[in-house]
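RECORD TYPE: inverse folding
INPUT: structure tokens
STRUCTURE:
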């Protein structure tokens, strides 16, 4: 009972934080209407956990769709198999930071924040406290390189490890 109440509160807290409106000027509305973004389709290439455990899933089977606005704002939804082989969703928003452009290559970073849902630890088998909540807020730093419409990214997931993704703009 308490677990489901906590889950609902966490979901409401994160969703309200993601979508709270902020006062904007008429110029920003005009610029936003002109903003033609693009979509990226992503999949996982590899996963690595810092503490090797043969019971952990290193094949996330990630599939994600991300929308990039020209204002560097990003929105995304990702489905993957978590470290415990459970179907998991990550709904997020964030910002893209361009570091360096060299010819057709773009070095960048991005910081996403949102909500992860799909962890199930009712029997207390897994050690992480967040797993017991099932749904929780997350912040993921990512570093990437883009070449024309292709991208390769490495995202850190807490102190557990990293996942390498590749994708394509369309």
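DESIGNED SEQUENCE:
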């Amino acid at each position: 009972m308490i677990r489901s109440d906590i889950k609902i509160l966490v979901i409401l807290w994160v969703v309200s934080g993601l979508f709270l409106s902020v006062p904007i000027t008429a110029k920003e509305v005009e610029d936003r209407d002109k903003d033609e973004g693009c979509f990226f389709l992503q999949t996982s290439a590899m996963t690595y956990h810092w503490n090797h455990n043969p019971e952990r899933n290193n094949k996330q089977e990630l599939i994600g769709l991300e929308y990039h606005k020209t204002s560097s704002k990003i929105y995304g939804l990702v489905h993957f198999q978590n470290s415990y082989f459970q179907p998991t969703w990550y709904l997020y928003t964030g910002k893209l930071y361009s570091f360096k452009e060299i010819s057709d290559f773009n070095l960048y970073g991005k910081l996403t924040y949102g909500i992860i849902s799909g962890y199930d630890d009712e029997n207390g088998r897994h050690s992480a406290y967040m797993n017991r909540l099932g749904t929780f807020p997350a912040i993921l730093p990512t570093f990437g390189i883009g070449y024309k419409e292709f991208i390769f990214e490495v995202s850190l997931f807490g102190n557990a490890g990293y996942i390498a993704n590749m994708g394509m703009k369309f």
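NOTES: Residues 2-20+36-169 form a domain with the Porin fold (CATH 2.40.160.20).
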